[in-house]
Amino acid sequence: PAEGGAIPLYALLETALGVEQAFDIASSHPALRGIAIGEADLCADLGIRGETGLDWSRARVIVAARAAGLPPPVQTVYPDIRDVEGL
Asked: Distance between CA atoms of 82 and 65, rounded to whole angstroms?
């Protein structure tokens, strides 16, 4: 359990607005234990394909997590399960 016996929370940022507000979200509650990007949903929200357009968003979320005293974000789902080399 998190501080005060609360259930630990992890925020998944899946929209442009979520990435823009990453620090506010990361520092919003003492039970929050981490943030990460929902990459497939973020790509859909941004109207992009592939990972190359996510570099800035990833960096933003890494910095927001650190500034809020959280551990570095973990990568979420890898959607192309047929691409074994990419894993």
From this structure: 31
